[in-house]
C-alpha cells in the first residue's frame, strides 16, 4: 500500500520559490493527505506564497505573531503535527523548515513510529538535520540553469509536453542515482501524483507507452516479454560536443578566464537543448568542474573558468 504523508510548511522560515521542487520531491515518497502551511498572513512578506498555495491546494493556517521578531508558526505546526499523529491516518511527515526549534517535534514523531522527512535551506542547524530520517537541502532541488525553470506559459498550460518530459527525466535520474531501473508503471503513478489531471489522451494517445515513445529523450526496453522499463537515450556524443566547445571557449579566454555566467549563456546559445541534469549534474558549475582540463576559482561575483593547459 502506498505510504501517506502529512506536509507541514513553516512559511516564515523557508522561501516560497521552493514550493514546486518540494511537491516534486515529496511525490517520490508517497501520497500527500495533509497539506498545510503556517504563518502570519497579515505580513506582506508572506504574499509570495499565494500562487503556490492555490496551485497546490495547500491549506493556509493563520498564526498571529503576538511578539515582534518571534516566529508565529512553531506552536501551531507542533500542535497540528501531534493531532495528526494521534489520528493514525498517516505513515510519515514532511516538515519544511530551517528552524532548529522543530528538532524535538521530529524526535517525538519518530518515537511515534513515523518516518520524518525534513526539507530546509543550507542554514538548517545540524541538530534538526540529524533528528530526521531524511534531510534534503532545498537549494539542491533548484537547478541553476534558467532553461530548467517553468515558464509562465507552461503554468497556464500546465500539462505541456516539455513539462512532462522534464518530470519524466527527473524520475529516471533519481532512480539512476539509486542504482534502480525505472518501470513504466512507476512513471505513470509518479506523474499522476505530480499532476492529478495527467491523461495521455490529452496528447492523442491511448497508452502511456505510446506517449513516451513520442518524446525524443526516452526509449522503452521490454524484458521477459512484459516488463517495460523507461530509460534516457544515449547522449554521449552530444556530451562530448558540449565539453569540446567549452574547452575551446575557456582556452580562448586566456589567463583571465571566463565567468561561469557568461560561459553558461554562450553554451545555451550554441546548444539550445543542453541541460546539465541530462548528464547527471544538478548545477552547471558541477558539469564544468568535471571537465579535466578546466579549473574553477571563486571570483568577486561569480566562479571563473580557467584552462589548466
TrEMBL record:
Record-linked Gene3D superfamilies: 5'-nuclease (3.40.50.1010), LOTUS domain-like (3.30.420.610)
Database matches in Pfam families: NYN, OST-HTH
Annotated InterPro entries: LOTUS-like, NYN, OST-HTH/LOTUS_dom
Source domain of life: Bacteria
CDD domains: LabA_like_C, PIN_LabA-like_N_1
Ranges of residues in domain HTH OST-type: 160-234, 238-309
Chain coiled-coil ranges: none
Signal peptide from the UniProt entry: none
Descriptive protein name: NYN domain-containing protein
Protein species of origin: Ohessyouella blattaphilus
Amino acid at each position: 500500500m502506498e505510504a501517506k504523508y502529512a506536509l507541514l510548511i513553516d512559511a516564515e522560515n523557508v522561501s516560497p520559490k521552493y514550493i514546486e521542487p518540494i511537491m516534486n520531491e515529496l511525490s517520490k515518497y508517497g501520497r500527500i493527505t495533509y497539506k498545510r502551511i503556517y504563518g502570519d498572513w497579515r505580513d506582506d512578506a508572506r504574499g509570495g506564497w499565494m500562487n503556490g498555495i492555490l496551485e497546490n491546494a495547500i491549506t493556509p493556517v493563520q498564526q498571529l505573531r503576538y511578539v515582534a521578531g518571534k516566529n508565529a508558526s512553531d506552536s501551531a505546526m507542533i500542535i497540528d503535527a501531534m493531532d495528526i499523529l494521534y489520528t493514525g491516518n498517516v505513515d510519515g511527515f514532511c516538515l519544511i523548515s530551517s528552524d532548529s526549534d522543530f528538532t524535538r517535534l521530529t524526535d517525538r514523531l519518530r518515537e511515534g513510529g513515523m518516518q520524518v522527512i525534513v526539507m530546509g535551506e543550507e542554514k538548517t542547524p545540524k541538530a534538526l538535520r540529524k533528528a530526521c530520517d531524511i534531510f534534503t537541502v532545498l537549494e539542491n532541488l533548484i537547478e541553476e540553469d534558467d532553461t530548467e525553470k517553468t515558464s509562465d506559459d507552461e503554468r497556464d498550460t500546465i500539462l505541456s509536453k516539455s513539462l512532462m518530459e522534464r518530470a519524466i527525466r527527473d524520475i529516471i535520474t533519481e532512480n539512476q542515482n539509486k542504482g534502480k531501473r525505472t518501470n513504466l508503471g512507476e512513471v505513470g503513478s509518479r506523474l499522476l501524483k505530480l499532476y492529478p489531471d495527467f491523461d495521455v489522451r490529452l496528447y492523442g494517445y491511448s497508452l502511456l507507452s505510446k506517449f513516451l515513445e513520442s518524446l525524443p529523450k526516452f526509449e522503452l526496453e521490454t524484458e521477459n516479454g512484459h516488463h517495460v522499463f523507461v530509460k534516457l537515450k544515449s547522449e554521449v556524443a552530444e556530451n562530448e560536443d558540449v565539453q569540446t566547445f567549452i574547452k575551446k571557449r575557456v582556452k580562448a579566454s586566456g589567463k583571465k578566464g571566463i565567468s561561469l555566467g557568461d560561459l553558461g549563456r554562450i553554451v545555451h546559445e550554441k546548444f539550445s537543448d543542453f541541460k546539465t541534469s541530462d548528464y547527471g549534474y544538478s548545477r552547471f558549475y558541477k558539469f564544468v568542474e568535471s571537465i579535466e582540463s578546466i579549473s574553477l576559482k571563486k571570483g568577486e561575483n561569480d566562479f571563473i573558468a580557467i584552462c589548466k593547459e
